[in-house]
Amino acid sequence: MPASPEPLREVAGLGPDDLSEEILSATQPLVLRGLAAGWPMVRAALASDRAGCDYLRAHYQGATVGAMLGGADAGGRFFYNAQMDGFNFQPVHAKLTGVLDEIEAKRELDPAPTIYVGSTTIDTCLPGFRAHNDLNLRGRDALASIWIGNRTRIAAHYDVPDNVAVVAAGRRRFTLFPPEQLQNLYVGPLDFTPAGQAISLVDFQRPDFDRFPRFAEALRHARVAELGPGDALFIPSMWWHHIEALSPFNVLVNYWWRAMPDYVDTPTGTLMAALLTLRELPPAQRKAWQEIFRHYVFEADADTAAHIPPHARGVLSPLTADGARALRGQLLKKLNR
């Protein structure tokens, strides 16, 4: 590659109860070395891969998990097929014990078929696991998920929630890009994706700079970190991240939360509605709507509606649960016309 990503900023010496509001509300990514070093899951995985698998088995009570199976020729990369009308992996439902058995059976193969259990709710899959393997997120209502697999590569994507990702077994390399690098990452379809989020089409192991020339500019802004068992990474909302699992057995625990009330919808719906209503307008009209969004949304402040009596501000009033419910009803009527 023509540029070397710069390392991420790091903090060491913190434990599961030491995450501050400053860290949890940051807008820049941060490596938290050894944050979960005391977790029993981490200690088991450091003893051996078998001990790590056995620790998971001890908490498993039989719930079916969703997994993705990829051939050895994919090199661990979960992606589209050659025609981009499907994917290079097979989704299956399986028992977690069977997945762990498969990982152990294939650990000496190089290359190996790829197996990956992604974004599985911990409390459903592994009851009791969080009693001794958890983080104090200062009252945040976070979704705690577990990700298990062998050597895998997850294409660069963003998530709307903030995220703390903890490496509980194995090693992972994270490559992150700030949100403004969108145009240089060559993102694929928005509505046909391998796992729900739009992904970069660039193969980070073998980038094709003839096809994706602006990716060289993205690399100038990249941040990278390699994490081992017990290390964690705070990933702010909307930061692009590419994840490589580097060991024969890898476990990641992550926590997602939104810094907004539950009644506020995800902005992804707004993007899709804008594609429906704005993108095909003549350029002059799109520019006019750009100004409207700037005024009412992106640069809105206390002065935006100050000239209107408070009782008459309607949707320009501060959003409440009742206001959100009413506004959602208006939108549904318009969409269902």
UniProtKB/TrEMBL annotation:
Stretches assigned to coiled coil: none
Pfam hit, one: Cupin_8
Boundaries of every JmjC domain copy: 79-272
PANTHER family reported in the protein's UniProt record: HYPOXIA-INDUCIBLE FACTOR 1 ALPHA INHIBITOR-RELATED, HYPOXIA-INDUCIBLE FACTOR 1-ALPHA INHIBITOR
Domain of life: Bacteria
InterPro entries: Cupin_8, JmjC_dom, RmlC-like_jellyroll
Annotated Gene3D superfamilies: Jelly Rolls
Record's protein name: Cupin-like domain-containing protein
The organism's taxonomic lineage, starting at the top: Bacteria, Pseudomonadati, Pseudomonadota, Betaproteobacteria, Burkholderiales
